[in-house]
């Protein structure tokens, strides 16, 4: 099925495809189970995630055993067995957890961000704070820095993973100062360790802005252009620039990174946040020795913001690159249906970070099953059948007003019967009465 056929289906079956038709942990989406993947729920997943979409796929080396094909072929050449990628963060901190991710079937793993000198990275505890609605976690703040493990250790673990899982995709997330030599050294050493691609962390919202790292670099398009130029002159592997949402228009840095040679863009990193104030102690959370620093917000609450940013980058990739750049969507994804929304906007793959911290690595089976369920309901056989299908339905508010005026005028013109009792006539009386009969 083509995108256009898919769009017709989307328009034709309103009950199933409006933006609000989705399942959340704990809710029932009413979908019929289209094939035999319906009933296998992994016991290791927490209850709420396990209820999301209520289907679980069997995976072999990340590939679904049956049902609609979930393979992703990125423009950059990266081929993933499924679109679900471990987002950089705690779920990619060391060999043990990355191995677990491959064993469970994640489509790719992006390791925790590394830099050359870990001695400059000093984390604090507590460094997380949750926002709950009833008992469910809907928002998560972190003030965690990049990896505080020695680069040599991380590189040895990359090597080991690639030796054990040669067919799986391992992406290094890297971040450095405004120093060409440092970027070149980091890229060279990661490539020697065998990574398949790079994601550049231009988006960490806290920590080390004084060294112009992370978000401080990603918010400055001039700096970004120069640094992306260095990176792309050196890297022989595909490069994705990970964008910060903490900027007026995310299309600016995304355009800058793509123009400087990056094969793709990933969005979003976390949103600058203050989780709240403890009303007993009057101190902000998470409190470290009575003080805090603004952190990064993630989890379900950020999904609408992430969708808007991904939409904006997808429009740019469609209009300026004829769809020929990678787009990896991130932010609040916990179900296959969440993922479908990002893919419908044009993302090729999606990343999950906080969702793994809440529900564990087996979540990937649930994510694949939920996505397949969505695809089966619409008759989609592959992700390309519907990728970007919802993107054309964004327009300006001005256009919405014009379209609504036209629709009302058309309805008025098509109205049957008399507009008021003063319109009855003696000669046409029978015809006029007939024009208002329903059967
Ligand atoms: C505790 C924590 C640590 C993170 N560390 C990194 C990091 O080292 N590098 C990075 O690029 N993003 C990092 N992120 C951001 C995530 O990769 C992701 O962009 C963001 O959390 C939104 O996705 P999510 O809602 O699925 O978590 C971190 C997020 C969390 C929650």
TrEMBL record:
Keyword annotations: Oxidoreductase
**NCBIfam families recorded for this chain?**
PRK08318.1
Gene3D superfamilies per the UniProt record, alphabetical: Aldolase class I
The highest taxon in the source lineage is Eukaryota
**Domain (Dihydroorotate dehydrogenase catalytic): residue spans on this chain:** 74-375
Q: What is this protein called?
A: dihydropyrimidine dehydrogenase (NADP(+))
- Any single Pfam family the record assigns to this protein: DHO_dh
Q: What is its EC number?
A: 1.3.1.2
> Per UniProt, what is one GO molecular function of this protein?
uracil binding
Q: Does the keyword Oxidoreductase apply?
A: yes
Q: Name one GO cellular component term.
A: cytoplasm
In this chain, the stretch annotated as Disordered covers 1-35
**GO BP annotation list:** thymine catabolic process; uracil catabolic process
The record, for InterPro entries, names: Aldolase_TIM, Dihydroorotate_DH_cat
Q: Is-annotated flag, keyword Kinase?
A: no
Instruction: State the pathway, as annotated in the record.
Output: Amino-acid biosynthesis; beta-alanine biosynthesis
The organism is Coccomyxa viridis
């Amino acid at each position: 099925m083509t995108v256009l056929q898919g769009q017709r289906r989307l328009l034709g079956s309103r009950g199933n495809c409006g933006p609000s038709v989705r399942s959340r942990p704990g809710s029932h989406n009413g979908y019929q189970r289209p094939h035999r993947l319906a009933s296998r729920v992994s016991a290791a997943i927490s209850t709420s995630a396990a209820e999301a979409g209520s289907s679980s796929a069997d995976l072999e080396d990340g590939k679904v055993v049956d049902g609609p094909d979930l393979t992703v072929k990125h423009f950059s050449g990266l081929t993933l067995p499924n679109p679900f990628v471990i987002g950089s963060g705690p779920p990619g901190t060391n060999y043990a957890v990355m191995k677990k991710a491959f064993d469970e079937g994640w489509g790719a793993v992006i390791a925790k961000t590394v830099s050359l000198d870990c001695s400059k990275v000093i984390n604090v505890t507590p460094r997380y704070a949750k926002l709950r609605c009833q008992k469910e976690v809907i928002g998560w703040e972190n003030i965690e820095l990049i990896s505080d493990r020695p680069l040599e250790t991380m590189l040895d673990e990359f090597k080991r993973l690639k030796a054990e899982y040669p067919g799986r995709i391992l992406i290094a997330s890297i971040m450095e100062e405004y120093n060409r030599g440092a970027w070149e050294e980091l890229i060279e050493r990661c490539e020697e360790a065998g990574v398949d691609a790079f994601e550049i962390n231009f988006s960490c919202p806290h920590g080390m802005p004084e060294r112009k790292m992370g978000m401080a670099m990603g918010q400055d398009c001039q700096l970004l252009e120069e640094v992306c130029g260095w990176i792309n002159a050196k890297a022989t592997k595909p490069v994705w620039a990970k964008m910060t949402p903490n900027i007026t228009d995310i299309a600016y840095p995304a355009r800058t990174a793509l123009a400087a040679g990056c094969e793709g863009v990933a969005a979003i990193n976390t949103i600058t946040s203050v989780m709240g104030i403890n009303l007993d102690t009057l101190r902000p959370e998470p409190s470290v020795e009575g003080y805090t620093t603004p952190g990064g917000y993630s989890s379900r609450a950020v999904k609408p913001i992430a969708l808007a940013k991904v939409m904006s980058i997808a429009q740019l990739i469609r209009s300026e690159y004829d769809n020929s750049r990678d787009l990896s969507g991130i932010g609040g994804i916990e179900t296959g249906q969440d993922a479908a929304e990002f893919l419908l906007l044009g993302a090729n793959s999606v990343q999950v970070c906080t969702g793994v911290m809440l529900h564990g690595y087996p979540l990937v089976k649930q994510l694949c099953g939920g996505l397949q369920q969505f695809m089966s309901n619409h008759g989609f056989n592959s992700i390309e059948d519907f990728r970007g299908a919802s993107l054309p339905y964004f327009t300006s508010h001005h256009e919405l007003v014009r379209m609504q005026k036209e629709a009302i005028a058309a309805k008025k013109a098509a109205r049957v019967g008399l507009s008021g009792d003063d319109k009855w006539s003696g000669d046409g009386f029978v015809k006029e009465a007939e024009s208002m009969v329903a059967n």
